[in-house]
Design goal:
mainly alpha
């Protein structure tokens, strides 16, 4: 069975498959355990297929943004797009009662609901900034594990 067919089968079984460093992370219902075993047997092919998909998506984003902006700006926009995509698919989600920035209880304080389902204190800009730094760092690490590197200028800032 080829990797793409196996990934389609995993999706049909309700499984989410991702790469985390050198590990294949599979989440989903217990009834799909036979498919999880197949994924484990074909781990290297599955990881290669997932990484190739992310690299192809990054190339598409570069081509899109490159048609609209100068190359350095397009590289940053494409990287931001792919970071956001990685975060939406694999990023951390904290409990609804907890600030994603400072990690403290939201309590009765006003909160800003973010597009990814996380929340931050509305009265403390540091919470939003801290969360932004954290999720972008996690996304960059995840994308690097897939063989993608941020634009040179961005890499120098980190």
């Amino acid at each position: 069975m080829d990797a793409l067919s196996l990934l389609a089968r995993a999706h049909d079984a309700g499984l989410a498959v991702a790469i985390a460093g050198d590990k294949l992370v599979v989440r989903g219902p217990q009834r799909a355990e036979p498919v999880v075993r197949l994924l484990a047997v074909h781990k290297s092919a599955i990881m290669a297929a997932l990484a190739a998909d992310w690299r192809a998506r990054h190339r598409e984003a570069l081509a899109y943004w490159g048609a609209l902006h100068p190359a350095p700006e397009a590289a940053w926009l494409a990287w931001g797009e792919i970071e956001d995509r990685w975060h939406r698919l694999h990023g951390e989600r904290v409990p609804h009662w907890q600030c994603s920035g400072c990690r403290k209880r939201l309590g009765g304080r006003a909160a800003l609901d973010l597009a990814d389902g996380n929340r931050v204190h509305l009265d403390n800009l540091d919470c939003l900034l801290s969360f932004g730094e954290r999720w972008r760092s996690e996304a960059t690490a995840g994308l690097r594990a897939l063989g993608l590197d941020p634009p040179a200028d961005l890499a120098e800032l980190q």
